[in-house]
Design a protein that fits this description.
The complex is a heterodimer of chains A (816) and B (298).
Chain A lengths: L3 E7 L3 H13 L3 E4 L7 H4 L6 E2 L17 E2 H14 L4 E2 L4 E7 L2 E6 L4 E9 L6 E2 L12 E2 L12 E5 L3 H11 L7 E5 L10 H12 L4 E3 L3 E6 L2 E6 L2 E6 L2 E4 L3 E2 L2 H6 L26 E3 L9 H15 L10 H8 L8 H11 L8 H9 L1 E6 L4 E3 L8 E6 L2 E4 L8 E4 L4 E2 L1 H6 L6 E4 L3 E6 L1 H10 L1 H19 L10 H6 L1 E5 L4 E3 L8 E6 L1 E8 L2 E9 L3 E2 L1 H6 L6 E4 L3 E6 L1 H10 L1 H28 L1 H15 L8 E5 L8 H9 L7 E8 L2 E5 L18 E3 L5 E3 L8 H5 L6 E4 L7 H7 L10 H11 L4 E4 L12 H4 L6 E4 L1 H4 L11
Parallel strand pairs in A: 1-2, 1-8, 2-5, 8-19, 10-17, 11-12, 11-17, 12-13
Antiparallel strand pairs in A: 3-4, 6-7, 7-8, 9-18, 14-15, 15-16, 20-27, 21-26, 22-25, 22-27, 23-24, 23-26, 28-35, 29-34, 30-33, 30-35, 31-32, 31-34, 36-38, 36-43, 37-38, 39-40, 41-42
Helix pairs in contact in A: 1-7, 4-5, 9-10, 12-13
Chain B lengths: L13 H7 L9 H23 L11 H18 L1 H6 L8 H23 L7 H34 L4 H18 L5 H12 L7 H6 L6 H10 L8 H34 L2 H24 L2
Chain lengths: 816, 298
């Protein structure tokens, strides 16, 4: 094969195959080089019978090869047949070891020493080559592997799969598929949600979990690999489980060295960066193109479209628009300036700091999950205390932050290219201030899921968001008077530390001087009084602690420990001290501010003797409530069992306010000191139920309530994910006869939720409804608020938010 | 420590905050005894005016003063009875059933004064006095209700030990299954006792049984006593089986007691409503008869 071809395509995955097929169809001279002896090695290596997804479903396929969701075998057979029929020139066992030359005259050297001349090169080699290696003690032990070829190979083993992506989930499911194999399979996920995996895979995983076929450990990460066991860091502390084999599927890195040796530049030094590409997939080395996973897009459909597109571009069709063009065009239609999709994408990418490293392709992917808005001067983007967990980036214009709730005229600007709303995303708490557009402004709003995906896949964006959020929180502690420049050193020295539930961050009486900000989760403050910890207060995400020691040089006056698994930002005390030394006026003001905080300590100290049992009771009650989810709650229903007569009017009112089904179970749940936490939604800061909702039907309502909207498909993921068991799956019953008809004539089942038998009988007459997920919506949209509380005749039912309820002030409050 | 005195309170969502901090006080103490004060002042006012207002020839329901009190009392009675509807209709709006209950209790008590002053102490064997008697009986039953509502919930909570009704029944069923298996190796006489315990429907005895509460002698206790008396237990297989059955019978007796106590407290909390509500209906009927007859014989 000494002839020169127009294009040499390296790699025969979906992208390369599609490119070669299109080149063949266009009659372009080509050769497809594949290092193994079969086509599409990545899919070839999928487990036998694996169901291959065809997401995103709203994207049209543009390729000479067919592809739709189906079994691995069907897809490979189709491609093999179509490649043969289309007279695609394929060379297998042809691993390319080097590419030399320039556009129009490249020489590709193969492993066997032969060479190929080509005018242009398309690299479609994917990213499978270099899996990310585990970096923990014992990771070099022989039972750690990064590939699973045949899951049926292993029997009677305790296998731990590390990685929450599709590969990890599919491996775990494969290993656990046949119970006869006797494998005990555990899959670890660092986070609570499987944001990086496909919805259908997550669903299968959860079904397997519910059936008890495998163990899913969320918010768990490996710490150490040992012979026959693995040490895990969980929400509740360290744990050691048996483990005979570890399959690590924590993603992969592009085979960067090889590509760089061809003269191709990457977007950054970052390990996870992608090659810098033009919109026609051309790299910085003219004539060499990169498509597929290596270009930053791992989905098959996208790869195939890119294969088609790159050949079109090479053939001179420069006006070709990507397949997702119409979807994006519709999104951008409302923006001013009549710019094209490409212009907008480039505007966003070049202007917004956290997007600068993304390739045009990643930009397209991100924008598919995001929304864009244009605001006029003075228009409010969001208001203080509004719930919201999306993150915004300013593409054009600027915004003003109202830093002082009492005086909206005091504002701090955020300039073009920066972000805002990141606190809501990270902490799960309400918006801290109102934000207005300072001028005509264009912003990109990343949904919670899109933002999490961006932070997970673009490390530089993650670092930028961290830095900005830390800087803003520091500025907030000291209010005005400091500029970002003043605290640059402090921010540089800051460190994000994750704290398992129960771990002590600050020890009372210690002399360390570090300062902390609660980033995720919550903390409890305790003071030791006669050998017993006294619960002082509850610190929600966004609070800071430990500053007293720095400001006045005292010892730690109380202990602080994590209520739930949390993340704190730690600032070294010395850096802080240096800042205060440089700005004596700030130290003075901080001391004055601290007076109020001192009161709480004095209060406790002065009452030491008289408190006695009351303090114990209060501390234990507070601890009980934290144990029962108040630590991550935003609003909880509590029942004072000294007042509850058990009439169940709360449940009845709940059912009658919501389609005849109660969303609370009064009797179920834990009780301590007559304070009962019924089975009812806590409206968590980071709702576990939101983690894996395929239609994205769970969101936060205007008052912070977590609600499921009508797009629920009844999959039951949220029910399985809720640690408090407050979501039920049930069908909406037909309407009941009215109250007076029941009262006077005994028609229907009466107030409250009708019995199961009645509902079933009536549903049979009226036609069955699908079982959907239902949960407390805090009576969103119902005037007067939660019906459970309004309908309690004795005042036993109360709704509380933790920071209001868990205060030491309650010690003095008499409850009758 | 920081953030104890939070800076995050916002004014924009004040109503939500207000709702969330829904004052933790009982229906009796609602709004710092607002309705107690209203009812108290009203009663005091009625007593004072009764003494001070000079009605000729004497106080009676037919004077202008009597009519005023009568109208007020009848209005109150109808409104108080409306609680039964209010309670069962969770319509939107910023009403609070606790507030209603509080007003119901105190205004209901004030009826003792208003109703009695309305009669001018002219009582007799007639439909008018019937209405007054019924009203007093309703108030008396209500007083019982207040007393149990104030004292029993704590006992209910303590007895429940975090178990729901279903869990208690399930627990009993579980013990029964274990008992059935454990009793297999027992001697005939012992086994018969256990079977008798299992077969007895412990909750079928009607209203009186609901009030009897725990500790009553039933087949379970008899079996327990039988298997516990005059026996010294060894490590032999027979003895071990007997010991296991004894432990299970003890558990069963305890579980039945918990359920019985639950039923008893609930019965005590509910029984008065079976007097209060029908008497209220009767009162409304008698009141109608009273009002109609008064106007008929004007």
């Amino acid at each position: 094969m000494g002839d020169k071809v127009r294009v040499a395509i390296v790699g025969s995955g979906p992208a390369g195959l599609s490119a070669a097929a299109h080149a063949a169809a266009r009659g372009m001279s080509h050769v497809l080089l594949e290092k193994t002896d079969h086509l599409s090695d990545t899919i070839y290596k999928y487990q036998k019978g694996k169901h291959v997804m065809a997401t995103p479903s709203n994207l049209v396929l543009r390729s000479d090869l067919d592809f739709e969701a189906g079994k691995r075998e069907t897809i490979l057979d189709t491609w093999d047949r179509q490649v043969a029929e289309g007279n695609v020139i394929v060379r297998t066992n042809a691993e390319v070891t080097g590419i030399a030359g320039t556009s129009g005259a490249f020489t590709l050297t193969l492993k066997d020493g032969s060479t190929i001349e080509a005018e242009a090169v398309v690299l479609a080699i994917g990213t499978q080559g270099n899996p990310n290696l585990l970096k923990l003690p014992g990771a070099d032990l022989p039972h750690v592997q990064y590939q699973l070829d045949d899951p049926t190979e292993y029997v009677d083993e305790h296998i731990t799969v590390i990685g929450s992506g599709d590969a990890g989930i599919e491996n775990a499911l494969g290993l656990a598929a046949d119970a006869a194999q006797g494998n005990v399979v555990t899959i670890l996920n660092r986070r609570a949600d499987f944001a990086r995996a496909k919805g259908a895979n997550v669903k299968l995983l959860e079904e397997a979990e519910a059936d008890g076929r495998l163990w899913v450990r969320r918010e768990t990460s490996p710490v150490e690999v040992r012979e026959r066991e693995i040490v895990l860091e969980t929400r509740d502390g360290q744990e050691v489980i048996r483990c005979d084999r570890i399959i690590a599927r924590t993603g992969s890195q592009p085979p960067r060295a090889f590509i760089e040796s061809c003269g191709v530049e990457f977007t950054s030094e970052d390990r996870a960066a992608f090659p810098r590409l033009s919109p026609s997939f051309e790299t910085t080395q003219p004539g060499i193109h990169v498509i597929g996973a290596l270009a930053g897009y791992p989905l098959i459909k996208h790869c195939m479209n890119q294969g088609y597109d790159v050949i079109e571009f090479l053939d001179g069709n420069t006006g070709l628009k990507p397949a997702d063009e119409p979807i994006l065009a519709e999104k951008f239609a409302g923006l001013p300036g009549r710019r094209s999709v490409d212009e907008w994408l480039e505007t966003f990418r070049s202007k917004v700091v956290i997007l600068q490293e993304l390739s045009p392709l990643q930009m397209r992917e991100l924008m598919l999950d995001s929304t864009v808005h244009a605001y006029d001067r003075g228009e409010v983007i969001f208001t203080r205390n509004e719930p919201g967990s999306s993150m915004f980036a300013i593409a054009e214009g600027s915004v003003l932050v109202e830093v002082n709730p009492e005086d909206p005229s005091i504002t701090v600007p955020i300039e073009t290219g920066s972000i805002f709303g990141e606190v809501g995303l990270i902490s799960g708490r309400k918006r801290g201030s109102t934000i207005r557009a300072a001028e005509p402004t264009v912003v990109v709003e990343f949904s919670r899921l899109a933002a999490l995906k961006l932070l997970a896949t673009a490390p530089s964006a993650n670092r930028a968001v961290n830095r900005i959020s830390i800087e803003r929180q520091v500025l907030q502690i000291f209010g005005s008077g400091l500029t970002p420049a003043d605290i640059a050193g402090l921010v540089e020295a800051a460190e994000v530390v994750s704290v398992p539930a129960g771990e002590v961050v600050i020890v009372e009486g210690a002399e360390d001087k570090d300062i902390y900000i609660v980033r995720v989760g919550s903390m409890v403050v305790e003071k030791d009084l006669g050998g017993k910890p006294v619960f002082l207060s509850y610190l929600p995400a966004g609070s800071y602690f430990g500053e007293m020691a720095v400001i006045d040089g005292s010892k730690r006056t109380a202990s602080v420990r994590a209520a739930i698994k949390s993340e704190v930002i730690r600032f070294p005390g010395e850096a802080f001290d240096a800042l205060l030394d440089a700005k004596p006026e700030i130290r003075t003001r901080a001391l004055a501010d601290m007076a109020a905080r001192r009161e709480i300590n004095d209060f406790i100290e002065s009452r030491k003797a008289s408190f006695g049992g009351a303090v114990d009771m209060y501390s234990q009650t507070a601890q009980f409530l934290v144990d029962n989810g108040l630590g991550e709650a935003t609003d909880v229903l509590l029942i004072d069992e000294q007042l509850c007569v058990g009439c169940d009017n709360c449940e009845k009112a709940c059912a009658d306010s919501h389609d005849g089904l109660s969303r609370l179970d009064r009797e179920a749940g834990r009780t301590y000191a007559h304070l009962h936490v019924p089975t009812s939604c806590r409206h968590c800061e980071h709702p576990h139920c939101m983690a894996d909702c395929p239609p994205n039907a769970i969101r936060r309502g205007p008052d912070g309530e977590v609600v499921i909207d009508e797009t629920c498909i009844g999959c039951g993921n949220c029910q399985r994910n809720c640690p408090y068991g407050v979501i039920r799956m049930d069908a909406k019953p037909p309407p009941k006869p009215g109250l007076l008809r029941w009262l006077l004539f005994g028609a229907g089942p009466g107030p409250g939720e009708a019995s199961y038998a009645w509902r079933k009988r009536k549903a049979a007459e009226a036609g069955e409804n699908a079982k959907l997920a239902i949960k407390c919506d805090m009576c969103s949209g119902i005037e007067g608020g939660p019906a459970c509380v309004r309908a309690c005749p004795t005042g036993a039912a109360i709704r509380v938010s933790p920071e209001r309820f868990l205060t030491v002030a309650r010690l003095e409050e008499k409850v009758d | 420590m920081a953030s104890l005195f939070s800076r995050r309170d916002g004014a924009a969502h004040a109503d939500i905050d207000k709702r969330r901090s829904a004052s933790h006080e009982s229906f009796l103490a609602h709004r710092a005894f607002f309705w107690a004060r209203v009812a108290g002042f009203m009663s005091l006012f009625v007593v004072l005016t009764y003494v001070l207002v000079d009605v000729e020839p004497r106080h009676n329901g037919g004077s202008w003063y009597g009519y005023t009190l009568g109208t007020l009392g009848a209005g109150l009675i109808v409104w108080l009875a409306w609680l039964g509807i209010r309670k069962r209709r969770p319509t939107p709006g910023s009403w609070s059933l606790k507030g209603w209950t509080s007003a119901h209790v105190y205004l209901g008590l004030s009826l003792v004064v208003i109703g009695t002053m309305h009669t001018g102490f002219q009582l007799g064997w007639n439909v008018h006095t019937l209405a007054w008697v019924l009203m007093m009986l309703v108030i008396l039953s209500g007083l019982y209700g207040i007393s149990v509502y104030a004292t029993l919930p704590q006992a209910l909570s303590e007895n429940r030990r975090e178990m729901t009704r279903e869990q208690m029944i399930e627990s009993l069923a579980t013990i029964d299954r274990q008992l059935e298996t454990a009793a297999q190796p027992l001697a005939r006489e012992d086994a018969d006792r256990v079977i008798a315990a299992l077969e007895q429907d412990v909750f079928a005895a009607g209203i009186l049984a609901r009030f009897r509460g725990p500790g009553s002698r039933d087949a379970t206790r008899r079996a327990l006593q039988h298997i516990s008396t005059d026996r010294a237990y060894d490590d032999g297989a027979d003895d071990l089986a007997q010991q296991k059955v004894r432990a299970l019978l003890g558990k069963r007796a305890g579980q039945i007691d918990q359920i019985r106590r639950q039923m008893q407290i609930k019965a005590l909390l509910e029984i008065w409503l079976y007097v209060h509500v029908p008497l209220t209906i009767a009162l409304l009927a008698a009141l109608t008869a009273h009002v109609v007859s008064v106007f008929y014989y004007w």
